[in-house]
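Exam revision sheet. Question 4 asks you to relate a sequence to its structure. Input first:
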Amino acid sequence: MPSSYFDDITFIKGGVIPECRAVIDNSFRDMFNLQFMLSGAMHFGIDGGPRTILERPAVFWHHPRHAYQYGPAHGRHWHHHWVTFRGPRAQRLMEQGFMPQSAAGYLYVHRAREYAETFARLVALVLARDPRQHGEAVLLLEQLLWMVETVGGEEAMESPYYDGIADLAAAMHAAPCREYDFAAAARKLNLSYSHFRRLFRQLQQRSPHDFLLHARMARAAHELEDPARQVKDVAAACGYPDPARFSKLFRKKIGLSPQLYRMAVFRNAGGENNHATRERRENAPE
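Answer key, structure tokens:
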């Protein structure tokens, strides 16, 4: 007989928007909302109060009793993750978990890559709507809380090479389907390749090659949400002429095959998710 242990929370929608330019001034009375900015710049405020400019990875949230105002800052977009949910466990997660940690309504996230991967896996499960995976989705949501509780106070590593590595990571996110010469990047920073890889992993929580692979698969997921694009065309555009190899890598990083991912997105199109999908297409780079 299935356990009812995880039945006190219901997931509604979720999504990942690599180039988000949404402007929000609203309250959401019947749901809770967890959101994460991986990169980019946005302004953020609560109940008409002062706006804060966020330019570092940060997690923020919606509670039904507050109104939230946010949107792009400095003419830029941001890499956005979101999931909505309701129920007694959802209320506890917000009121006893996230909210006591920050009256400002947001927390900076230092292990941003790991946080983004966990969030993306949660979104994939929410979109799949498989009751057998509901418990895993709940645990991932609670892991997102645990991660900011345990590492939220850590400071990012100070290094004279931080800016150069951060700039390279930003470039890979903006154009993941390009070819990158990491040996040349190391020479530009006057580092040996092994030292460059070690610093990159410290700052980004993964090797340069794995970081680039994640960025490519995230871009591929975005492109697959356009029904006019065929899987083989998306694979080729991302630098994988062999669709079978692309499918294997996509499944490894996203958690679903390209076809199953598309089916999940199209099956759940409508309402908030449909709006998010339209926004992804409208905001895609030319």
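Marking note for examiners. The CA atoms of residues 8 and 88 lie 6 Å apart.
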